[in-house]
Design brief:
Elements (H helix, E strand, L loop, with lengths): L11 E5 L5 E5 L14 E3 L4 E2 L2 H10 L4 H5 L2 E4 L10 H28 L6 H13 L10 H10 L2 H14 L7 E2 L1 H11 L6 H8 L7 E2 H7 L5
Antiparallel strand pairs: 1-2, 3-4, 3-5, 6-7
């Protein structure tokens, strides 16, 4: 099969032409496999799609148009009302986000103790120090005052998780800059729970060039130069 191991970007599928050569064509959204309710996604056009296959197939068919350029995955789940993010909320957002990233790494570390290979050796040694000191704050919803106090007192605990998340996202390509599609996996899963994340990322882009550099990312999270 000429299409075996022939890679097409999202929204396209491999098709063999009359000469028997493989090339990529737009996925027909109507031909996408059926999905469950929980697999629905919301596009930036505020329309609910029956999964990412249908969304990216639609985007491909709109290629070259303004609508095609503007259509992206907004968040996981059916479209719903997302309340606007207030100035106060966006100011508090980094506190919760830093704590959440730290907790994600801690969970990875615990799983890695049983099933090694989740973290690299370097990551494991970094997170081990955080893990051993983590008995100060038990998991749960903490007040803004407590999170701020902990960040100021245990600043070094929060630096690595912020750097780690940036490099986890910076994959296509690895260039120390985050573009919309690299931010999408994190954004799309958090928007329904954290309605300030879109505004937070917009404001992280200090020079408004639609790219978030490592320096801008760290500045957003209150990490010193």
């Amino acid at each position: 099969d000429p299409c075996w191991n022939f890679h097409c970007k999202r929204g396209k599928v491999c098709h063999v032409d009359k000469q028997g050569k493989p090339h990529c064509v737009c996925q027909d959204p109507a031909a996408c496999p059926s999905t469950k309710d929980y697999e629905r996604v919301c596009g930036t056009d505020n329309k609910t799609y029956d999964g990412t296959c249908q969304l990216f197939g639609t985007k491909c068919q709109l290629e070259g148009t303004k609508m095609g350029r503007q259509l992206h995955l907004d968040y996981m789940g059916s479209c719903k009302y997302i309340p606007p993010c207030t100035d106060y909320e966006v100011d508090q957002f980094p506190l919760r986000m830093r704590d959440w990233l730290k907790n994600v790494l801690m969970q990875y570390y615990e799983r890695d103790l049983n099933t090694s290979g989740i973290l690299t050796e370097k990551q494991r040694s970094k997170v081990k120090k955080i893990y051993q000191n983590e008995k100060r704050l038990m998991a749960g919803d903490h007040t803004v005052e407590l999170l701020l106090h902990d960040f100021e007192k245990n600043y070094h605990m929060y630096v690595y998780p912020v750097h780690w998340q940036f490099h986890q996202l910076d994959q296509h390509p690895v260039d120390r800059l985050l573009i919309h599609s690299e931010l999408a996996p994190l954004r799309a899963s958090l928007v329904p729970m954290e309605h300030c994340i879109t505004r937070f990322f917009q404001e992280c882009d200090g020079d408004h060039n639609k790219l978030i550099a490592l320096k801008e990312w760290c500045h957003c999270f209150g990490i010193k130069e």
